[in-house]
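Two entries, shown back to back:
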Amino acid sequence: MTNSINQSSAISILEQIAKFGERRQQVLAGNIANIDTPNYRMRDLPLDQFKQALKNAIENQAVASGKSLDERAVESSKPDIEELFTDGLFQAEVASPQNLTFQDANNRSIEHQSMEMTKNSMMQAFAVELLSSQYRALETVISERL
């Protein structure tokens, strides 16, 4: 029952956004920590692939929201949330350089990393706030039934 509520609402998508934001913050912080390490290459998560998975998940939920619970249970052609957000989306890869490579073979840019951390932090805070709101709404509905 709880799983079907999570799958049919925005909760599962918001959880994935918060999870992605947390993992990306770790990767970006690692980049800043290694800013002076020779031969270190900046890393990042595949942001474009995550955005595409997010778009697909939202489209799937929009299609599913117009169907009855029985129709959603029978339909298995649409991928589940976990299938859309694969582990590969949460694995860091070497980022394309945003500037010239330095003589120590590092492609650092503290300004770019700081900007990305700020944008990522705002995205994650937004997702967590919406997620908290969704849980409060569920809690209100449940408490009214008892």
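entry 2 starts here
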Amino acid sequence: MKKNFLSILWILLQCIWCTPQNLIGLVLHLIHRKNGYYHFRGAIVTAWKHEGCTSLGAFIFMEQSCLHHERLLVHEYGHTVQNAVLGWLYPLVIVIPSMLWYHLPMCQHYRKRKQFSYYRFYTEKWANAWGEKVCKMPSVR
């Protein structure tokens, strides 16, 4: 009974609080589902041919070569939890800063010069923490 209630609550949360990200995630899933997908803890994990991984609402997108990388999946699931907590604020608080941290040459040079891991940034540390807490499994470090 409790598990059913939590599943229903999760679906309602995704449909109401996380609508923009889930709509974009659904469209991307429909485009890439031919590459393979599976379900993980209420999320849909979809393979895509792009570099890197991302999470939008209840949709996780992973490079085909990383599709079954368990620690990376736990990290991306942590982003799914962040999404549920932040709702409409998720793109501003997590997605944009994370993309800049990953893609901007200035940030890439900074990480290399300081020998900082990509996962040291607040968006990524927080995703690791949430993923590990919810999944009870280790994440990437």
